[in-house]
């Protein structure tokens, strides 16, 4: 399902020059920007890891996003070199197999981590007592482990796609095996629903209900929470609408078009299939770019970043308020950390 090269290797309707130009430039740009952003995020996580803030469910989810993004950005120079060498893979069969595997682990891992993060924020806003009662670093890590297992196991078939012998003695990688296209189309339909449509629907529902809830609140703290939640909504929707939606839409159309080419040939004009192949290149680059946008969550929503700057600017003021919360219908007072924002903002 590697979309970067889902086309026949014949010269008919080829966009070879287009992909040799776009892929290396884009991959190296994403690598530079993503590496800087994720390393800065890693710095803040390391500086605050022993604090209560660092062990919040939100930050545990974000550190897993960080791990996923770092894997992705570190693979991009190898992808770029493949196209700079005009589709000649020089890093061995095992490394080739890992490339597609990393891409899909990163993309669907990011999608599911963003979905869980959105649900956590929804519960923290709408049911703060439940959030305080149930927030646990152990539970957060268990959820992250489940996500990693799901995306890792379901992506195992991609490890079958290794190198192959191409024209002029070149070693091909990241290429489509057209003999498996029917199977890939069937798998794509399932992945489209479970890997994109369902998470996007969950995220949308969470944000709609959270927005209605926040609009009813008038307190100063709720206004801050509203701003912070709006930041989360904007960033997550930006990632989905810019990176993931175009990729899944184009990939679905593209696979069907390639099957039509196999059955009926190119026809009289190359215009449609060439434009579709160019769109496949562009949307694959956009999907890879999610590793550049995820650090925005760390900087604008994550408690580590806010806590670090509040501590340095205000000499010890914490971004997280430790509350003594009286639970509804109970005389018991429970102490917990409600990670919704800095004090006095």
UniProtKB/TrEMBL annotation:
GO terms for cellular component: plasma membrane. It is a multi-pass membrane protein. One of its GO terms (molecular function) is G protein-coupled receptor activity. The chain crosses the membrane at residues 27-46, 58-78, 98-120, 140-159, 191-217, 229-249. It is found in: Cell membrane. SUPFAM superfamilies: Family A G protein-coupled receptor-like (SSF81321). GO terms for biological process: adaptive immune response. Residues 37-298 form the G-protein coupled receptors family 1 profile domain. Keywords: Adaptive immunity, Cell membrane, Disulfide bond, G-protein coupled receptor, Immunity, Membrane, Receptor, Transducer, Transmembrane, Transmembrane helix. PANTHER family: G-PROTEIN COUPLED RECEPTORS FAMILY 1 PROFILE DOMAIN-CONTAINING PROTEIN (PTHR24231:SF48), PURINOCEPTOR-RELATED G-PROTEIN COUPLED RECEPTOR (PTHR24231). This is Cysteinyl leukotriene receptor 2-like.
